[in-house]
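User: Fold this one for me? It's Histidine ammonia-lyase.
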Amino acid sequence: MIRLNGQSLSFSEVRQILFDLEKVGFTEESMKLVKKSREAVERIVAEEKVVYGINTGFGKFSDVLIGKEDVEELQLNLIRSHACGIGDPFPEIVSRAMVLLRANALLKGFSGVRPVVIKRLLDLVNACIHPVIPQQGSLGASGDLAPLSHLALVLMGEGEVFYKGERIPSMDALTKEGIFPITLTAKEGLALINGTQAMTAMGVVAYLEAEKMAYQSEIISAVTIEGLRGIMDAFDEDIHLARGYKEQVEVAERIRAYLKGSYLTTRQGEFRVQDAYSIRCIPQVHGATWQALHYSKEKLEIEMNAATDNPLIFEDGEKVLSGGNFHGQPIALAMDFLSIAVAELANISERRIERLVNPQLNDLPPFLSPEPGLQSGAMIMQYVAASLVSENKTLAHPASVDSIPSSANQEDHVSMGTIGARHAYQIITNTRCVLAIEAICSMQAVEIRGKERMAAVTRSFLENGRKIVPFIHSDRVFSKDIENMAEWLKKEGMHFDTKGVVELQA
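Assistant: Here's what I get for Histidine ammonia-lyase.
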């Protein structure tokens, strides 16, 4: 069991909880802080002190005082009125991450909720009850209000959930698991929705997929290098040390490791003097993407353990401060950066695909066709890759540069971070399909060259990949091949550590 404390949740632990369904709990020390902040809220209510979000309205209604007899109704109205998200729901894994991250934030002890609220959130995680949360409707400041309201509905026994492969009313799932809904009291509704957990959860899942895919892009590139009889001199360590970027050096090191022992690669002057940039500059381009990934990871790790609601309670209630930690600008910028970086992996991959299929750029059969002219081979696969790359360019327009005032101009600058996170995830999905196409084309090319001459690592990739997509002996419906290869890369494919491939599996 992984015990949360609001301070130290790591990507490794998140991966275990999301994908391995590791159980979660809390530390006793963190719960003591939760209880103290709750006692402060109850004193404020009893003494009828005026504190935003506890006994006032919200947003532009912050100057409207609420009597203590109406505090529970205030929270109920807040959640119901704010649960107005639209569109397709977030992927179930993102919903699971959202619940986890909200519980972790509340365990910091600055939010004034009762322990039972956190326990219910952890109950949902452990029972794999995942709220149905529409993707559209958040401005990314004042928190992810609409998405998180749909999450909060489930704690109250309202709304819908994903449970054991079905989409059902939340009360049905809670009843089956013996979990009782709760009535939200002072501050609790606001504490649940005033945060960045929608954009952060989407960002965390996007990052985990992007990290794996970035490694995959390198071994797929290595197979392409063999298919095109690429020149290894461009990956010599001295070149990359001379520039000094750590990530660039590491990419070149992995490429050399993947291609060790290959008889399909060449030296400068042996076949040609220089390769095109899409081959020669793999370490420079992929390395720059790794720099952006590292930046995004750093910001996400901070946000996973951040207090992002408002107001926050300090010094056992002696200080209750209204601020703006709900503003998603740090994650908005990180997601825009992630989008651009991953889009570039697709951009350069599509150029390598073109070199694999264009007879004017190689000495392979035109479009890798078994019967050029009679059969089109991989011709239209390159079209698909080009289309996805072009779509990525529109999705990579930064969401964070936009802002629309809300709440009668009280909330006059917003981050659009959730839009940025959603776009990043779509770019990752598109890029995986582009890499799937490159993998299919590169596997065809190396088999035409002679797979017995491949390096051991790339040969292992080919053998496992062939269990997913067979050799192209004749034209067929290639959309299924692309879908199957992309699904393999996402769910199974290759598992990596920082030095490269650990295991390949079908």
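One thing worth pointing out: The chain is about 55% helix and 10% strand.
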